[in-house]
Recover the amino acids of this structure.
């Protein structure tokens, strides 16, 4: 998560709960090229050994022993098959190494392009295309990764050209480079190079796109019935429900759970990006993405705080904030903005980039990320840092029909994260760990839904919450 | 000339070493896991073949004088 501010004395160290194959991708392309060479040499040796066996099979001393000849013949056939298998492995290893190396080069080139665009023609950064930046970057990143690992593309350049071909025709590619550079470099060797300039660039873009129309937060008549939350999976599931309330966008669910021996606890569920527009009726749009990633004020954070106030959360009541993708960034921003107004105990994010602001020391962060999900890398950092008081839960996305590597939808979808959350819950139970804010036996639970919207007709019906100073 | 089986065995031992060495490359992640599994399988198959060839052993003692007489 974000870096912890100075003065967080006694804050527990960050932890990583890794359910993936072997954690973060770390690779040196040059090493892969050497490995490919070794495998090619091994294949040659296997073929040479098969040739030796041919000679052995015609050795008169061996011919005198029919069973010996049979064994030699079988070994020879097996050797030739193995040689072919190892040769294929060598080819795939070389292709993967080249793809990783290409990704690194592409990242550098894109960073250069971004610098050029910013310096020469800032207007190019305005187009509405940025609007789909997060989604496009996700698709591109996942496609690139899939291509690199499966050899579907001849080169990263080919993948880049194919994926961005349509985008470049209308100028969108130019404005995507900042985010893409972060993604591409995130997929490169070691996913190591962090692009610390991403928040600065994104904040600049947010400023240039102008302010969106005003938004309001209104209560809704209906809300889904949610089970009393007891762990991360419930926090993830609640957000999933927020996506599907009567076809509305920007729905915030606030769940109150009673406890016999203490004040009620609260779970606030926040959805992610639901519109690629800048400034339409939907608050969970690209304007909010840019503001959150740029570390500047956004409407969704205010909307969540409004919903919490309308729901009647008392300052001392324990609160858990949960969000998917953009919703995770909003949850972080709310935790930062809440200050002493609320007792935010935990923030649960899944598939979310981090925001630039440091998290409060006392807030426990659970950051779930599927290793194949490129969205958490859109902040320019490879994976979520295991900052103090943060538990990073990492796992592999389920594969889908696209092959051995999950497609972009599978890697970012909520269902996969719910499965990962269940794994984490089970592991935490075995260690007697709980999600702060969800301790104790839960009692009755009620959920209220609120909607953040910029729809003019709705905005006109809501009295202003602030009056001008006299 | 050295027995061709011995030469084949030596090649297999070297090939196995190369495959095992290739698996040591610094690369982690799900794809790397699959890569290593395939290499481990290949190395095991090569080792099994090498053992099999080593087990073939020298020509049968009784065959030597017969073959020499025929030649």
């Amino acid at each position: 998560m974000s870096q912890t501010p100075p003065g967080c004395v006694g804050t527990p160290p960050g932890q990583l709960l890794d359910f993936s194959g072997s954690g973060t991708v770390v690779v040196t392309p040059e090493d892969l090229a050497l490995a490919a060479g070794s495998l090619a040499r091994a294949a040659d040796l296997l073929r040479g050994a098969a040739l030796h066996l041919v000679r052995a099979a015609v050795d008169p001393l061996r011919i005198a022993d029919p069973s010996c000849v049979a064994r030699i013949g079988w070994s020879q056939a097996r050797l030739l098959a193995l040689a072919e298998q190892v040769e294929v492995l060598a080819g795939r290893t070389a292709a993967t190494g080249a793809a990783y190396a290409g990704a690194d080069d592409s990242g550098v080139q894109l960073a250069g392009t971004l610098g050029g665009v910013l310096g020469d023609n800032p207007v190019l950064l305005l187009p509405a295309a940025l609007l789909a930046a997060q989604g496009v970057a996700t698709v591109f990143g996942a496609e690139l990764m899939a291509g690199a690992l499966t050899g579907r593309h001849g080169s990263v350049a080919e993948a880049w050209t194919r994926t961005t071909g349509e985008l470049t025709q209308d100028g969108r590619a130019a404005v995507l480079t900042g985010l893409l550079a972060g993604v591409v470099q995130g997929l490169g060797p070691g996913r190591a190079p962090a692009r610390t300039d991403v928040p600065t660039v994104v904040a600049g873009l947010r400023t240039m796109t102008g302010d969106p129309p005003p938004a309001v937060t209104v209560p809704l008549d209906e809300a889904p019935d949610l089970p009393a939350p007891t762990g991360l999976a419930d926090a993830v599931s609640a957000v999933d429900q927020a996506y599907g309330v009567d076809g509305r966008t920007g729905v915030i669910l606030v769940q109150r759970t009673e406890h016999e021996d203490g004040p009620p606890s609260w779970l606030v569920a926040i959805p992610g990006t639901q519109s690629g527009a800048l400034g339409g009726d939907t608050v969970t749009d690209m304007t909010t993405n840019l503001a959150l990633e740029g570390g500047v004020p956004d409407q969704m954070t205010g909307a969540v705080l409004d919903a919490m106030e309308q729901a009647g959360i008392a300052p001392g009541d324990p609160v858990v904030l949960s969000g998917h993708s953009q919703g995770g960034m909003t949850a972080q921003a709310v935790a930062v903005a809440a200050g002493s107004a609320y007792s935010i105990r935990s923030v649960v994010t899944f598939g979310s980039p981090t925001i630039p602001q440091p998290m409060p020391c006392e807030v426990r962060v659970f950051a779930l990320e599927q290793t194949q999900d490129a969205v958490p890398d859109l902040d320019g950092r490879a994976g979520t840092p295991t900052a103090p008081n943060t538990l990073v839960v990492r796992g592999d996305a389920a594969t889908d029909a696209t092959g051995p590597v999950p497609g972009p939808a599978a890697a970012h979808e909520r269902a996969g994260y719910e499965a990962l959350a269940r794994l984490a819950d089970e592991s935490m139970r075995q260690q007697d760990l709980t999600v702060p804010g969800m301790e104790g036996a839960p009692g009755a639970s009620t959920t209220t839904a609120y909607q953040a919207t910029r729809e003019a007709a709705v905005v006109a019906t809501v009295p202003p919450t602030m009056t001008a100073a006299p | 000339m050295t027995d061709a089986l011995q030469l084949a065995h030596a090649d297999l031992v070297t090939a196995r070493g190369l495959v095992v060495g290739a698996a040591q490359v610094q690369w982690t992640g799900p794809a790397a896991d699959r890569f290593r599994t395939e290499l481990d399988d290949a190395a095991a198959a090569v080792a099994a073949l090498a053992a099999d060839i080593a087990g073939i052993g020298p020509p049968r003692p009784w065959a030597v004088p017969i073959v020499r007489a025929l030649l």
About this structure: The radius of gyration of chain B is 18 Å. The beta strands of chain B are 27-28. The CA atoms of residues 61 and 67 of chain B lie 11 Å apart.
